[in-house]
Amino acid sequence: MLESRATVVLTRSPADNAALARRLASLDVTVIEVPTVDARVIVPPGGVAAIGAAVATCEFVTFTSRRGVDAFAALFADEAAVVLSRATLRVAAVGAATAEALFALGLADVITAEPATAARLGDQLIAELNTAELNNAAPVPTAARVVVVQGHP
Question: Residues 120, 91, 16, 75: is their CA dihedral positive or negative?
């Protein structure tokens, strides 16, 4: 009688699947990769100028994925790190992979959610905003306090 072998279908890109695919293979699991995400940069209404204006007046820019960081970098080309380096701007990432993408742009200080969930990042941002207000560390701008950059398929 033949023993059945487990099969797992991974739907992310091979690069995103690499560690999990190796781990599953080491457990003698058959891995089938079927990437289902095609990420593209979409210029929002108002274009790059609107993004730059929002970032220029907010306290936090929050990235929810590496793809969001990649899209931001593509839109701003060589100026991405400059745009994100304003002295009073804080940059946040939903997880370690997103933070690594920001570090690759040349940023040194990134708030990172642990564990890597949007809920945890939200909690951290609220704590940071409350601390800034209590310490009167930075004036509350008249525009949005947090800009979220999302990478969606």
Answer: positive
